[in-house]
Amino acid sequence: MTFTLTYVIGNEKLTTQESNHHVTITRTTSSWQHGQRLTVTIKPEQSLTLVSAVMEEPLVFDNDTVFMLNGYQSWTETREFTTKDRMRGLDHLPRWLLHKYQLRQYGDLHIAKTGKRLFHGFTYGYIRNQKQFRLTGSLNDQEAFLVIYHDLANSLTRLESDVEGLVLDSSFTLFDVLFLEGTHDEVFDTYMRELPQIGERPVLIGYTSWYNYYQHISEQILLDDLDALQGKYNLFQIDDGYQTYIGDWLDVNLDKLPNGLMPIKTRIEDKKMMPGIWLAPFVCEKKSRVYREHPEWVAKDRQGRAIMGGSNWSGFMVLDLELEAVRNHIKKALHTMRHTYGFTFFKLDFLYAAALPSRPHQTRAQAMHQALLFIRECLPDAYILGCGMPLSSGFGLVDYCRIGPDISLLFDDVWYMKWMHRERISTKQAILNTIYRRELDKRVFYNDPDVYLLRNHNIRLSTEQKEALLVINALFGSVLLTSDNVSTLSLRSKTLFQTAKQLLKATDKTVTQHGHMIEISYVLEGRHENLVYDSRRGVLTRWSHVRKD
């Protein structure tokens, strides 16, 4: 594997593949179970600015080869790609649309390159030929994100360390990568053992208010849905809508919640459930009080313009986490929710915002990791569910993590959303993410595959699609949440839920994909079971567990 370093000293751009009088390059290769480990470190002899660090090797593939590359953040499309597939960028969209909706901000297209017959992903991925896997996995994502490219047009695999613009005057590890070959379990068991572990956490079965009412919640709605649960669940989480504006977390919207949060939180605890709350701590929207009073808290780009995080709400901006006042603002909000109100579960959303500012002294990975360390310091004794974040930044730090995009009330959402970015709302894609990020569960965090929905109103998923969503969430996740008022569910839906709950205990799970048909096998209570999921239609075409029951 060839290595090339590009850097700038003064006004001169230089490229090298080996040590010179500017920089010492050290490559270390060691044998590893099922493969090898490669580490590349550099030590500058004087201050320099990194442009790129790249490793390349020939890519051997045929028409049966498939590629799985982990997406940048929670919502980014993650699945197996064939040689005939295309990984979509944003080049097909007009510039006015990109600007109006800030579409570049949600994903990785300010970092990664896209093109015809070019696949890319972050942190880890594999090449599969039949049942033989070749896995590439980073052990260095706290320092620099690993970007993995498979360039089919040029028959190259290219690894890039996300270090562009980093000013360096001391030793730095560019790559620390495992290259493993073997069966699925062999390569993933080996890789996952080397990552930060989370330890044992409770499996969550509960409720979140978002996917029925969205921001249109009220005290009565929350209390009615809470009472309907009848104490059979262990989490009740209040989602977006309780606050006046994004960023003003302690300004409760009294039109919706005239008695504030405390009576609802108390009722949750009376039901013997964990009280949960939603925040997006690293951002604020344009209409917020915090922005009106403190516009200087917003992070700026190199031209002095406010850094946008996206177009949700009234448009939202990134807070500058390097400012002590901003950290104090976030800490106060989290501390109040934890110790004044008594919430013990925190769903923290849009976390990718911490990695959007470009800083010469810090990589994106370092900024993201430091931001999550800060959150953990603010909430040392609470359960944290990370959402909308680069997954590797939360390894061993967040208790639970969203591993897919928001589901849609329509299987693949409205037609024009299919042309948008790879973080779009989609039940179809959420299910695929759940399947192809299953290896992370109960290792680096507990997987949250997003909600299941069984109701018959305010939804356009078919009965069969709702069944598939619930079953796959239960098989490959450890967070099983709904937004239904369960008292309105049919007897069939309630029975299906009780059956699916058993799947949380399934073991020995295997996945084999043939085109759009995905065969899943597992063991439950000593019995070997199997199902086939049709990813094109979103339905189970075979589920032996149902037939036997």
Highlighted features:
TIM Barrel; seven-stranded antiparallel β-sheet; 549 residues; alpha+beta; eight-stranded parallel β-sheet
What does this structure look like?
The structure is a single chain. This protein has 2 domains: 2-72 and 111-193, no CATH class; 204-281 and 327-502, Alpha-Beta Barrel (TIM Barrel). Helix 9 (427-436) packs parallel to helix 10 and helix 10 (463-476) packs parallel to helix 11. It is 21% helix and 30% strand. Helix 9 (427-436) links the parallel strand 23 (400-402) and strand 24 (446-448). The longest helix has 17 residues, at 324-340. The protein has 12 helices and 29 strands. The strands form 5 sheets. The chain has an 8-stranded parallel beta sheet with strand order 24-23-22-21-17-16-15-25. The model has no long low-confidence stretch (mean pLDDT 96). It is globular. The termini are far apart. It is α+β, with helices and mostly antiparallel strands.
CATH architecture of the largest domain: Alpha-Beta Barrel
CATH class of the largest domain: Alpha Beta
Termini distance?
A: 53 Å
The 3D shape can be described as globular
Number of discrete helical segments:
12
Count of extended strands: 29
- Rg, rounded, reads 23 Å
- Largest sheet composition: 8 strands, parallel
Structural class call reads alpha+beta
Find the CATH topology of the largest domain.
TIM Barrel
**Helix coverage percent:** 10-25%
Instruction: Give the CATH H-level superfamily of the largest domain.
Output: Aldolase class I
| Overall residue-averaged pLDDT value | 96
Give the spatial strand order of the biggest sheet.
24-23-22-21-17-16-15-25
- Hey, roughly how much beta strand do the residues contain? 25-35%
- Low confidence ranges: none
Give the total of domains.
2
